[in-house]
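We read letters as residues; the integers encode the fold. Take this protein.
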Amino acid sequence: MVKIRPLSDALSKKAHLELNERPERIEEDLNALRQWIAKSPHIRSRIDDQFLVCFLRGCKYSLERAKEKLDMFYTVRTMSPELIRSRDPLDPKILEIIRLGVGLPLPNTETPDSPRVLLIRPAAYDPSCFTIEEVIRISTMANDIMMIEDDNFVIAGQIGILDLANVTMAHFLQFTPSFVKKMTMMSQEASPLRQKGFHYINTPHGFEVVFNMFKTFMSEKNKSRLYVHGHDLDSLYRHVPKRLLPLEYGGDAGPIQDIIDQSVEKMLSYRDYFLQEDQYGTDESKRPGRPRSAESLFGVEGSFRRLEVD
């Protein structure tokens, strides 16, 4: 008996048309994925239905692609302990960052089968107090929760809004090329989630340097989904309906603080889940064939040269 949440009619139709989901085959596909995990000595993975179906959906039910994605998901996480390990929401520093609301899933979608909108506000954190790695760790926690319980997020995808108002040079300086490479790999190669668009607003002087750095490591498909609106919110509203945004952005989604409070409550409710997470990952000494390393995954020397020439 498959233990996954029933979909709404709208999302069920989208999953069928866009992701090749066939309800009568899901159990067979999940069992095949679980059998592969059991025969992969280097992978320590969650095997519950709701978790694994994210990878099938994100790979449009190509079993081979789902295997590759799941392997890369855990490999990149194992090679990025500063982003993934020790994610206890009751840890005072982690809880402090959660309460800042740097990254917030917004409560409503445009239609019942539309992507989830995420609002990211880097200026909410002080770079003299926190590193970008500490902040992104909280983002991975939010993503993990949405993978498990947000069907719009998994099936319809995500739309990001990056608000750069009041961001300082100290924020930008935390974005080293090696960190940017790690982040783009985590979101492109190591995530089953569908990126449907990324919007930059209130962009300051100096933004182009970091923006171009990210683009260097991006696929052409993801580059085509980037939108820079400057300070023109009306331009953003043409892509993301105004009503979906928080009160502070002219929308109807309520005050940002209310959304933050809900996010804190959600994170705390998942504490046991995050405490279990440290047991999962890859053991490269047991990988059949050639082991992977942080250098082989994230080495950026060639990209540095290309950046300098460009």
User: Anything to note?
Assistant: The domain at 1-310 is CATH 3.40.525.10 (Phosphatidylinositol Transfer Protein Sec14p). The beta strands are 43-44, 103-105, 116-120, 158-163, 195-201, 226-230, 281-282. Residues 112 and 191 are 23 Å apart (CA to CA).
